[in-house]
Write a structure and sequence with these properties.
The complex is a heterodimer of chains A (about 120) and B (about 120). With about 120 residues, chain A is an all-beta fold. In chain A, about 0% of the residues lie in helices and about 50% in strands. Classes of the chains: A mainly beta (about 120), B mainly beta (about 120).
């Protein structure tokens, strides 16, 4: 149980375009979803936390207008990278937590390359 | 402030050797949770263990064992009789007293098991 999927698994886009990444909890209701970013050979850094039906809470230094997060249902959260630039190229990982357990279960990640 | 330190950036061992990955943490909370995750080359984070601050019993799961020492703020991870499939980056992480909020990750230790 506790499976989280992400789509797409990888994406290449041109500078200036927007990219949407989906995170879904497949077999549980995710009351909270987290979005992390991981640069090559580095650790995961939390970008934002979102609770279903409310606005996301962004970590310091993360531009909320650039990284739009929507958590419209208990099984889906989306991250939209707006006007992407090469420096946004990274590995984006979501995780989800249900109200009945404490662990965060992670999606497989989305590798974004902006050319 | 919460902080996780994994001083070992990279470790290489020969198959069947034992290896210990170190994790030292800092927190002001008296109740907290510690985690270990495995990130294989595919990128997906795999949950290994969760331990709360009141449970100092060491845990063994197959070839994996964990040594939690509150006195030294350490939560070390040992793999016995390592196998090539153990090659991955291992992250130690810490969260606050609820165990449900954002995880603070260490920088990870890249383990390479040589056949």
């Amino acid at each position: 149980g506790a499976v989280v999927s992400q789509h797409p698994s990888w994406v290449i886009c041109k500078s200036g375009t927007s990219v949407k990444i989906e995170c879904r909890s497949l077999d549980f209701q995710a009351t909270t979803m987290f979005w992390y970013r991981q640069f090559p050979k580095q650790s995961l850094m939390l970008m934002a936390t979102s609770n279903e039906g409310s606005k996301a809470t962004y970590e310091q230094g993360v531009e909320k207008d650039k990284f739009l997060i929507n958590h419209a249902s208990l099984t889906l959260s989306t991250l939209t990278v707006t006007s992407a630039h090469p420096e946004d190229s990274s590995f984006y990982i979501c995780s989800a937590r249900g109200h009945e357990f404490y662990e965060q279960y992670f999606g497989p990640g989305t590798r974004l390359t902006v050319t | 402030a919460q902080k996780v330190t994994q001083a070992q950036t990279e470790i290489s061992v020969v198959e069947k050797e034992d290896v210990t990955l170190d994790c030292v943490y800092e927190t002001r909370d008296t109740t907290y949770y510690l985690f270990w995750y495995k990130q294989p080359p595919s990128g997906e984070l795999v949950f290994l263990i969760r331990r709360n601050s009141f449970d100092e019993q060491n845990e063994i799961s197959g070839r994996y064992s964990w040594n939690f020492q509150k006195s030294t703020s350490s939560f070390n991870f040992t793999i016995t009789a390592s196998q090539v499939v153990d090659s991955a980056v291992y992250f130690c992480a810490l969260t606050d007293r609820t165990g449900a909020n954002n995880l603070f990750f260490g920088t990870g230790t890249r383990l390479t098991v040589i056949p």
